[in-house]
């Protein structure tokens, strides 16, 4: 009799422990995933995830899009930042040259097809560069391909600590610390998906750059005359977007014929026009 009671007691204890463990697992699984330290609030990105994977096909009679990007308003002036003694290596002041242009034509504008899901193969060269130079980033905006390598460089004697953030999620993607000029930090696993990356320097918060990552080759940057071209496009109707971090974005529908060229004239809306992301505020700590 005593042995039966002891056996029953042990069984009840085992059930209680198993139930407690099960509850603990459920409670643990229900907890929100902790955000990576250094992340910020998510914002609306100018580059969005595609509807499906990109397919490489043979484009028998490729078309092309050529165009210009203009702004007819009053161009914002450059910013001059007066530096403190703690910001050694940048000189006494830094000029933040916000816009490059020839007349009303705007250089350094990213242009891309937002909805193309099949077409030619990408170019072989997939190595891109972002430089800390005179305590600002060069280039301010660039378009790159997934699977490539981003080399972040310092050409300054000043110290830098560059933070790379996914704009849409706010997640901290990478950090590039520099102690002197001539240093290069390659990121060969950073450009993995279609996204907008924002780069800021913790020690020089005015310095910002944007890296727009695409899984297809139909993107370009406007040249000094505000012109661009997209080549090797299959015949069809596409959504074209142009974006500048200061002058906003513009969208346009373009139809490309087989073996034909379509010409467009895009006009940016002006400062804070469209839906460009707001700047990231640097953290208080530089550690």
Question: Characteristics of this structure?
Answer:
single chain; 287 residues; mainly beta; Immunoglobulin-like; 5-stranded mixed beta sheet; 4-stranded antiparallel beta sheet; 1 helix; 10% helix; 40% strand; globular; disordered C terminus
What is the CATH architecture annotation?
Answer: Sandwich
Which geometry do the CA atoms define? globular
Distance between the termini: 68 Å
Q: How many strands in all? A: 22
CATH class, please? Mainly Beta
By CATH, the topology is Immunoglobulin-like
Largest sheet: number of strands, sense, barrel closure: 5 strands, mixed
- Unreliable stretches (pLDDT < 50, length at least 5) are 15-31, 276-287
From the alpha-carbon coordinates, what is the Rg to the nearest angstrom? 25 Å
Folded structure, characterized:
- This protein has 1 helix and 22 strands.
- It has 287 residues and is mainly beta.
- The chain has one domain: Cupredoxins -  blue copper proteins (Immunoglobulin-like, Sandwich).
- The strands form 7 sheets. It has a 5-stranded mixed sheet, with no helix packed on it. A 4-stranded antiparallel sheet has the order 18-7-20-21, with no helix packed on it. A 4-stranded mixed sheet has the order 10-9-12-15, with no helix packed on it.
- A hairpin with a 3-residue loop joins β20 (236-244) and β21.
- The radius of gyration is 25 Å and the shape is globular.
- The model is unreliable at 15-31 and 276-287 (pLDDT under 50).
